[in-house]
Known about the structure:
Blueprint: E1 3-8, H1 16-27, E2 31-34, E3 42-46, E4 49-53, E5 66-69, E6 74-76, H2 77-87, E7 93-96, E8 100-102, H3 104-111, H4 114-120, H5 127-135, E9 152-153, H6 155-164, E10 169-172, H7 196-203, E11 212-218, E12 220-223, H8 235-241, E13 255-258, H9 261-271, E14 275-279, H10 281-284, H11 299-312, E15 316-320, E16 328-330, H12 332-335
Amino acid sequence: MSCTVVVDGFYGDTGKGKIVSFLSIVDKPAIVTRTGGPNAGHSIEYGGKRYKLRIIPSAFIYEKAQLLLAPGALVNLKIFFEEMEITNTKGRVWLDKQTGIIESKHIEEEKTSSHLMGKIGSTGSGCGAAQADRVYRKLKLAKDFPELKEHITDVPLKMAEALDKGDVVIVEGTQGTYLSFYHGSYPWCTSKDVTASGVCSEAGIGPTEVDDVILVLKSFVTRVGEGPLEGELSPEEALKRGWAEIATVTGRARRAAPFNYELAKRAVILNGATQIALTKIDILYPECFGATKYEQLSSGAKKFIESIENKLKIPVTIIGTGPNTLHSIDLRKEKIYQS
Ligand code: IMP
Ligand code: MG
């Protein structure tokens, strides 16, 4: 259980942030490395506070964790400094010298693009434009900014050293498998590969170093922006079922559909997933709200979990039963690490 990669099996917003925050409390990682960019919003509720983070790793609540930003990640400096204040993490947040920096021209470029804002439904956070500049090899990197000097470290080396010592390292993915620009519903996707392999490549960790890939699946499917969504409900029906959500970054209403076993199965393959974290089971089965033990779940909820395990052939090891980090059931000891 030394290196764990956490990725999303649908279209983002399955609750990776909450799962990573829970893992940080239980597993006490030395390092948590965040990939992706500020197009992603991760929500964390802990210690009576609610955080919506776009850059700082969701594990910040575990105070001993070093919080790293991947060489392949994209950072908006204004948001970076703001979030470091909000989370009170100065001194333990580090960028790699090669981390990409989003500038206002990138945001401008996206916000005025009818292709991105209209057809694709981009978040307009400048990630795609910055990524394009990186492909052209003209994007500025963290090492080009004097104000970042004291925040720079060698991210891949730090992770390698921690793993050598037997410490726990978590790599936090962003968006979701079906927003991957290789494996998602192109062109309605993001500007990167956000599957486990893409995430590892961004972080600078080789595939043989990874012990577990936790695939986060929500108990129903949501999607923001354009693109196909099988079984999509009307906004009224989504509201009636309690599935109507608002996107963290853009404030747009998320589209909703029932849990999709076919997408989940394919996501297991694409990510080489070893375990599933199933979130928001309390939305389908309200009687399960806040449960912290498997025995507290209703028979309906247990049947749902069993059907997922039967179809996907890997264990559901973590179950989210509410928005708080501690509204979680951890079955890893029973199901995986039996000794
Ligand atoms: P972009 O990455 O901001 O250009 O957005 C491309 C597509 O991915 C749009 O449909 C966005 O709504 C979606 N998207 C980007 N980031 C996220 C995320 O973190 N969660 C969910 N959808 C996202
Ligand atoms: Mg999100």
